[in-house]
Specification:
single chain; mainly alpha
Length: about 180
């Protein structure tokens, strides 16, 4: 009887250990998963704090540079010659006995007359028109060549003057005037 009692006790204890084994495994997996989540969260927080620290270091370096620049500017303002130069430049101050001259129209200083300026304006329109891409001028030339000759007899003078000045804007206006005729 004793042997049967022992075998029963042994089978009960082995049955208990078999039943607790999978439960212990599941609990340990859950604990490991929670630990892993905590570890990933800690690394994420560390990365965010490190990025913020690097940004603050860059901001500090910029502020140190700005402080150095402002200190240099303060040192310049303590120099009398710098203050004098700034007063002349910004405020137009002059020393006693000096004459201040202010030029309102800078073109008048260049020495060109008003007639020369009006001629320059005409040259500016032709030079700005010559900056039109070459393929636009080519396309215009092809369109003009394809027009019938009966139309071109009425607009020959305007088309020849526009081609001699090589101005596409005047050419396009003469082309529009020819198309309306």
């Amino acid at each position: 009887m004793r042997s049967s009692k022992r075998s029963r006790d042994a089978s009960k204890s082995s049955g208990r250990s078999r039943g607790t084994g999978p439960l212990a495994f599941v609990v340990s997996v859950i604990i490991l998963a929670l630990g892993g989540i905590q570890l990933v969260s800690a690394f994420h927080t560390y990365a965010l704090n490190l990025a913020e620290l690097n940004g603050l270091k860059r901001q500090e370096a910029a502020l140190v540079e700005q402080k150095r620049s402002l200190e240099n500017e303060i040192a310049r303002w303590s120099d009398k010659s710098y203050v004098t130069a700034q007063a002349r430049e910004r405020l137009g101050f002059v020393f006693p006995g000096e004459v201040s001259v202010h030029v309102n129209n800078s073109e008048s200083v260049s020495g060109k007359s008003s007639n020369a300026q009006s001629l320059d304006k005409d040259d500016d329109t032709t030079s700005s028109a010559s900056t039109i891409p070459w393929y636009s001028e080519l396309a215009y030339g092809i369109r003009k060549a394809d027009e019938p000759t009966s139309k071109s007899t009425t607009g020959t003078s305007s088309s020849s003057s526009s081609s001699s000045s090589s101005s596409s804007s005047s050419s396009s206006s003469s082309a529009s005037s020819e198309s309306t005729e």
